[in-house]
Amino acid sequence: MIYLEIQNSGVEKLLLPKFESAKQGLKYEKFDYVLADFDGVLHSLHTVHNDKSKIMISISLNFYSELQDYRAGKLLGREYGEHLCEKLENGASVSIIYDLKAIPPGHGQPASQIALLKINCFSAVFKRFFEFHVLGEEAVGSKRAVIHYRTDETLFVRALADRVTVMFSTVFKDPDDVAIRKVFLQELTEVQRRIHRAPQVLYSQGTPSTELQGTSAAVGDNVAYVTFVLFPRHLTE
């Protein structure tokens, strides 16, 4: 079985001791880290200048402007509340700040929530299109999104009255990529066999779906397309 973490474990591991030390009343220590995610996303974590009791976390996403079209800022406001900064660090897409002196007793672990910052940005697209689906065919129309989350790879989402389609176009450049692809697809096939209600998964190489016509999604002979088809039973809260 392949286990894919949704949080950034590096961010979580760096911040956990900071919050634990603060809860124990230990002295605050200055730090400054930059973490690069596998898809080029950068996390910046550091203490605020001249105030070691405050820590700032920023994330840089090249495609954040595309996410904003689907209310990413509103979703982050609900998730991080007063911690969300109006004034961003230079080059940052989102900045949040935490005061180590103001963590309420019994408060949930902030490090875990902070480690979900990227996935919370990304989830805005899915949440919006799930809402489009609920509104029905008349309200949905031909709504679709194309998110360029990497230089040569894209995410395509479309909502219709009876389903939501999520398609990833990705490039397999070397033998390792091909091996990973085989394992990944095998796992998806096994899940479908074991779980009858699992979403339908489609795979094609070189031939894009007609849904991609007229979009800026990545296409080409070396591009593979993995499509997840979500029906109402998959979208029920």
Briefly note the structural class of the backbone.
alpha+beta
> What is the strand content?
25-35%
Report the span from N to C terminus. 26 Å
Q: Which strands sit side by side, in order, in the main sheet?
A: 5-6-7-9-8
CATH class of the largest domain: Alpha Beta
Question: Secondary-structure element sequence?
Answer: HEEEHHEHHHEEEHEEH
pLDDT under 50 segments (min length 5)?
none
Domain module tally:
2
For the largest beta-sheet, the strand count, sense and barrel status come to:
5 strands, antiparallel
Please tell me the CATH architecture of the largest domain by its name.
2-Layer Sandwich
Helix content: 25-40%
* Number of DSSP helical runs: 8
Shape: elongated
Report the strand count.
Answer: 9
Radius of gyration: 20 Å
Oligomer: single chain
CATH topology of the largest domain: Yope Regulator, Chain: A
* Rounded mean pLDDT score: 84
Family: Belongs to the ARPC2 family.
GO cellular component, one term: Arp2/3 protein complex
Main location: cytoplasm
GO molecular function: actin filament binding; structural constituent of cytoskeleton
